[in-house]
Fold this protein.
Amino acid sequence: MMQVVQIFVENEMDLTLAYKKSIKAAELLGLSISTQTAFATAVSEVCREVIDKTHEGSASIEIHNEADRFSLAAIITFKQNPEMGSLEEGLQYARKLVPIFRFSVLNFRGTIELKLAIPRSSMVNRAK
């Protein structure tokens, strides 16, 4: 795992930054424009829910290597506020945009993982 960028998501300006950084990371990896847009939209939708309903949010854009396959991932963490409702409803759109979507909460700390495989045609390797 290699972290590309870390963003603290606390207000609407951070939402725009998360979107732009997600687009840029996907672009540098040679992903298609439609894939870049889908990934960045999913990241921004999750960040919007985190900003609206939780505290202490952060988003990390990472590259994972699993069995000689690389994937682009966004790991969004937050502190859940027990008085506010569940995030599950607001995440349905983001869930449709990425192939791998994981949501977990442990001791009021939530983690959402968005992940998509990088095509072999992108020629991504450890050195790149």
Notes: The mean pLDDT is 87. The radius of gyration is 14 Å. Residues 77 and 111 are 5 Å apart (CA to CA). Strands lie at 2-9, 54-66, 69-80, 100-106, 109-117.
